[in-house]
Amino acid sequence: MGRESDDAVYRLAEAIRSGEAVAVREVLSAEAAAVCDSAGLLPALTGTFHGAQDVARLVTLIGSVFPHADLTVEAVNGRSGLLMRQAAGEAVAVIAVEAGETGISALWIVLNQDKLSRWHCFPEPC
Fold it and tell me: Which of 33, 34, 47, 50 has the highest Cβ tally under 10 A?
């Protein structure tokens, strides 16, 4: 994991915690894209989103759906990414991040509970 990428992921985490789409947009490249898999649970959050504004809205909305989730930087697919867990240890989102010189360029967001089971930390504490 490169230092520049790691820094971008930490900045993204802080922006999501702020709840402000403008803050999220500032860490994204203008051409950012996101692919979101919610398994149809949240139809408005499923599909591909293009452009910093739409991606920022998506990420901010996800943060608002899980306002009390713990957001941490974790290794996701061999790179720095984000993990959102509820207090009981249930993973609710995993976000893989690709960052470049102009900011975060791509997000792969998994909200699909069938794909998040390995990220849960119950019955054992995290």
Answer: 34
| CATH number, residue 106 | 3.10.450.50
Q: Rounded to whole angstroms, how far apart are CA atoms 35 and 7?
A: 22
How many structural domains comprise the chain?
1
**CB atoms near residue 96 (< 10 Å):** 18
**Mind listing the pLDDT tens digit of every residue in the chain (126 residues)?**
466 678 999 999 999 999 999 999 999 999 999 999 988 777 777 889 999 999 999 999 999 999 999 999 999 999 999 999 998 889 999 999 999 889 999 999 999 988 998 887 765 656
In the block, which residue shows the tokens 């998506």? 58
What percent helix, strand, coil does the chain show, rounded to 5? 35, 35, 25
Residue 124: inside a domain, yes or no?
Answer: no
Report if residue 111 sits inside a domain.
yes
Q: Please indicate, yes or no, if residue 8 is contained in any of the structural domains.
A: yes
Cα–Cα nearest to 58, from 70, 43, 72, 73? 43
End-to-end alpha carbon distance in the chain = 23
Note if the pTM is more than 0.70: yes
